[in-house]
Amino acid sequence: MTADAVKKPKGGASGCLDREKPASKADLMAQVLTRENLQRAWEQVRANRGAPGIDGMSVEAFPDFVRSPQWVRVKESLKRGTYQPNPVRRVYIPKASGGQRPLGIPTVIDRVIQQALAQMLGPLFEPGFSRFSYGFRPRRGAHDAVRQARAYLKEGYTVAVDCDLTKFFDTVNFDVLLCRVSAKVPDRQVRRLIWRYLRAGVVENGQKRPTEQGVPQGGPLSPLLANILLHDLDMELEKRGHKFVRYADDFLVLVKSERAGQRVMASLTRFLNKVLRLTVNPVKSKVAKLGQCRFLGFTFRSKKIVWSEKSLAQFKRRVKELTGRSWGVSMEYRLRKLSEYLRGWMAYFALSEYYQPVPDLDEWIRRRVRMCYWKQWRRCRTRVRELLKLGVAANCAIPTALSRKSYWHMARTLATQSGMTNAWLASQGLVSVRDLWIAYHYPAASQSG
After folding, report:
1. What is the pLDDT of residues 196-251, one digit of tens each?
2. DSSP state string for 82-144
3. For the whole prediction, is pTM greater than 0.85?
4. What is the rounded end-to-end Cα distance, in angstroms, of the chain?
5. CA neighbours within 13 Å on the CB side: how many for 87?
6. pLDDT for 204
7. pLDDT digits 0-9 by tens, 352-397
8. Phi, psi (5° rounding) for residue 207?
């Protein structure tokens, strides 16, 4: 593609270059390649870790590469505008809704360069982004987006226009995206480099294929490019006076009636298709009460934030895997992995304001852990010995150990519960979902306790 084609892209975006004045810093590439910016980019890539790209270089091996002449040649080619990015390595991860999500894993070298680009481009675009856009932005997050939706609900906007964009990251139109980038980025070398990253190609099963559209999920630059493209959607919604909240390609528009919602859905579908060349999935999109919609893993009940049934089902499935009787690991390792998962899950889902299911979850998890101990003890005399060590009376421990009932049944007997008490399980390393929830919602009370 020629430089003129990058400067004046075609397709669905006529006149977009005239909307905003480009940034005054023309030599942006020099700022991208400063030692300080590259060092900061490397530290971020190192913190994120991640798998190697097609060249096989790991994050741990990158410092040695930087000390070699090859890194000098890479920087020189970036300065001259001749650098050619490597294709991304295609991998698939399971989606929560079923199926698989394609990811594109860039090489560590390209991850560092993309991160350095994002650090310089972010401040150019960030001031103009909507305050109702929360995805991949500094000092903003998914919790803020969910709270904003709850605020609209309290104002009486009870109906949601829930638009699902069909394979958003895989269907981004390059010309439409580059038009938005060019409106703010005057440096032709930077624009050309972004273009080359978009067209770098994908390697899957050892075969390289070109990319004609789409922004690969997995690169540090992709979230910023997604926000740049969808900024037009935000501005259109603000111009129309709609109440909305967006996190990357997940967004809700809140209205007060279903009829208004159907009108908004129809007009947004036309706008997204005509202006941004994006397609709304008619099967997954809907106009419904906010309590019937899932947003970032949550839903709403009586104007309160609650985790969705689907999120809870995924949680239980994972806990069952970690407490499966056939998993041949030590209890110490099992409890460590289980507690890591519980802490991580609650760090996000403790936002739920619905306390009622929390103690029941704790009880269910403890019962599954007792079941694992009962299976591990295996022999009758081992069970008697362990129960006696835990302070269970012999006339209770012996009949329990001799029982042939199921592991799940035995995990809720007087002997197992009075021996493997809640406090004892905590001393073995099991964390409490209830304690994590209380610490999130009432930090002062949890600290004083």
Report:
1. 999 999 998 888 988 889 998 889 999 999 999 999 999 999 999 999 999 999 99
2. ---PPPEEEEEEE-TTSSEEEEEE--HHHHHHHHHHHHHHHHHHGGGS-TTB-TT-TT--HHH
3. yes
4. 65
5. 16
6. 87
7. 999 999 999 999 999 999 999 999 999 999 999 999 999 999 999 9
8. -110, 130
C-alpha to C-alpha distance for 46 and 422, rounded to whole angstroms: 39
Question: Closest Cα to residue 199, out of 1, 343, 59?
Answer: 1
- 8 A C-beta contact, residue 61 and residue 68: no
**Cross-strand pairs, 301:** 304
For residue 448, what are the CA distances in angstroms to 275, 347, 439?
A: 55, 20, 11
Nearest CA to 199 out of 166, 227, 174 is that of 174
118-160 confidence digits (pLDDT tens): 999 999 999 999 999 999 999 999 999 999 999 999 999 999 9
CA-to-CA separations, 203 to 88, 104, 235, 257, in angstroms, rounded: 6, 9, 36, 48
289/194 Cα distance (integer angstroms): 41
pLDDT at 98 (0 to 100): 62
Cα 183 to Cα 113, 340, 360: the distances in Å are: 22, 45, 54
